[in-house]
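User: My advisor, Dr. K., asked me to get a structural model of this assembly before our group meeting. I'm new to this, so sorry if the format is off. These are the inputs:
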Amino acid sequence: MGKLTIGCFASLVGSTNLDFAVKLSAAAMEKGHKVDLWVSGNGTMISIKDQRAFKDYSSLEKPLKELMAKGLNVTACEACAESRGYHHDNTLEGVKRFSMDWYLGSCFDADRVLHIGGE
Amino acid sequence: MATTKLGFVVTRPGYKSENPKLALTHAIASQSVEIYLKDGDIVTADIAFIGDGVLNCIKGQKAVENYDLNSTESHVKMALLLDLNVLVCKEDLERFGMTESDIVIDAPEFGADMEVKVVPYSEISQMMEEMNHLLFF
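Assistant: The format is fine. Below is the predicted structure of the whole assembly, which you can bring to the meeting.
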């Protein structure tokens, strides 16, 4: 089985890029692959806990928690998160926070890298 | 010992989205990635500005004065200081009526030895083929 590294820089609300990244993560894990998900820029919005689900806005807290429980490795860019006021105490449990070199380290031994830029 | 080559391809203009600056900061992070790797393993970062992305390289940016932000120009210079390979598409520069004299080429004030290379797209394409992974910003 392989390793897939996904970097997503798009916001939780406003595009469905993060929805796609999470669905792709689920599909890859279903096939037995290891998945690292790096979120940076506006993508760090997914790391905030207590998202309220509305039908008009993407809400990924529930599927993200389910996937992390199955082994999805989610890391948010710490500087990007802090600059937006997303602090450690309102970060979703299980989401790690590191600097940008973490993403490059994950790319190092990834079989495939899918980078989804921001808006 | 292994090397993974990452190509950062910047296609968007600066300041209207965060992407170009994030491309540069992530590429610069290649200098500290060793903490996540085994001894001897490295990640290299090459940067290419194509399409509207070449506008990020215009020199004399006043981001500090106008927005109190580090300019994308200063990030390009930092990349040069760290000896990253920075390519700018010649054809796309010409499309904007620009030449090498309009963009940042070197950074002697940063102590950088590397220079930005203005090259035909064919050379950027060749660089991209040599990479293990491409990241488009």
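One thing worth pointing out at the meeting: Chain B is about 30% helix and 20% strand.

User: Perfect, thanks a lot.
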